[in-house]
Automatic annotation (TrEMBL):
Pfam families associated with the record: mTERF (PF02536)
Family classification: Belongs to the mTERF family.
A GO molecular-function annotation: nucleic acid binding
Keyword tags: Transcription, Transcription regulation, Transcription termination, Transit peptide
Family annotation (InterPro entries): MTERF, MTERF_sf
Origin: domain of life: Eukaryota
Organism name: Malus domestica (Apple)
GO biological process, one term: DNA-templated transcription termination
Protein name: Uncharacterized protein
Keyword Transcription regulation in record: yes
Length: 78
């Protein structure tokens, strides 16, 4: 993943990587996202693109997703 997108090495673990991977994990657990999704592409999206595509886009199926992204809800609580 980092070979194709070395810019990922500069991303904040707390501010970008963990929140996004938490959302992706919830979507995968709920069967709403393909298991083979390229996670590098998820990290390279702008914040606005990510929120529109993965948080706002699934708000009817998983209303707590924005809380997971903000770190206010645990994955297992969703």
């Amino acid at each position: 993943m980092t070979v194709k997108a070395p810019v990922i090495m500069g991303y904040s673990l707390e501010k970008r990587i963990i929140p996004r991977f938490s959302v992706v994990k919830v979507l995968k657990l709920k069967g709403l996202m393909d298991e083979n999704k390229n996670l590098g592409s998820v990290l390279c999206l702008t914040k606005k693109q990510f929120l529109e595509r993965f948080v706002t886009g699934y708000r009817t199926e998983v209303p707590q997703l924005s809380r997971v992204y903000q770190g206010k809800a645990a994955i297992q609580d969703v």
